């Protein structure tokens, strides 16, 4: 099979690396990109799934973190989302431990309703460690039942450096990079299949399967295949972002921070050599100049560049796979990076493609339909999780938050929140990305406190419940005491080369 990847960046080189690792020597993989076309690079924060991707490639974690100026991520701190002055953490990994058939959070709800439980974040090693600036991976000899055995983490890294790192990896495994801009997409007049892309220098690059990694413009999936785009602005009103790096002024935190602002939210992503910042906002509620002023007034250190503007429409292509073209990354759609899902969606798209890869020269419509159905399912469930952050708020201090608080939400999200409000129950829908712990932390953090709980919790006596909750809180705290600081761990295991300021 002859595979052509059009566009580089994170999506293109992730695809090239994975395909070169997974496919046999009879497959030819070429990647077309131009140095003149910049990459968006919105995905500097990740979720734990990326560990599986890197492990599949056989990457050395310490080398990867060092080469990308990376740091570690135990979760995300959300400030001012539910109410001004509020703060909570959406941490990875587990929370407490279940007893019998009831989940831990159900015991916590009963205790909280009776004034016998502290904040939810006190019961997870990830959230406690994040707030204390501690980090370590789970020791190999510690069982998962121990809090230190259930540490889950992801990474912060420089997306451009990650793409460069993967390019080196892919080229070592036979991927050929072709420099140039695409001037024309050539199709078969009988069936509409793409047969080649013709470059400005006249070179023609032919293939059997084309992977579109050309970003928002979707050169092949939209420009040629006319897949169509489904706009989700009615639920996710932000449509612009400004990104700017600033000087590092303190040890990197082992978590991402998201702070709600008057017309959107600001991210803070700590790397070893700098801190990444950005303001995601709605142009209906604030001007670009005002947004830039808000962003620059809330940096930790001196800015290292002028804010870089980005315009987007949250949503998805109606079809991410059309004929012999598969779109990955921003070419397939855009979810704002509120929960760091951008790189995960590239990864999951690649995984599905490998599972449904067609035979050379033949694309089965059944495979295409299955791929598109899975992409839509994942995107809609992530969409609902993001909408939850905006809609589950008490804020009415600005027109933006008043709009978010009162807007209609997807029926699927309403069902989730109504069920949780009533009894604290949540049922994961098949293999959607975010599970029970994530939904519970965000719903509680945003102010959705259940009025009841699962009656199975009553199997534990009223006398034992506060002791049970206190013991978990105590064990978690003592285990975090044993962990090194995030900065100490990086300095010992994966320091990055020093770069000029």
Write up this protein.
- The chain has helices at 9-22, 49-57, 61-67, 104-113, 125-132, 159-172, 288-296, 342-355, 365-391, 399-406, 411-423, 436-445, 464-481, 486-493, and strands at 2-6, 28-33, 71-73, 75-79, 87-91, 154-156, 176-179, 182-187, 194-199, 204-206, 209-212, 229-231, 240-247, 256-261, 264-270, 274-281, 308-311, 315-317, 321-322, 325-327, 333-334.
- The protein is α+β, with helices and mostly antiparallel strands and 501 residues long.
- The strands form five sheets. Strands 5-4-14-15-16-13-17 form a seven-stranded mixed beta sheet. The chain has a six-stranded mixed beta sheet with strand order 7-2-1-11-20-19. A three-stranded antiparallel beta sheet has the order 8-9-10, with no helix packed on it.
- Helix 5 packs across helix 13 and helix 8 (342-355) packs antiparallel against helix 9 (365-391).
- The chain is globular and about 75 Å long.
- The two termini are 46 Å apart.
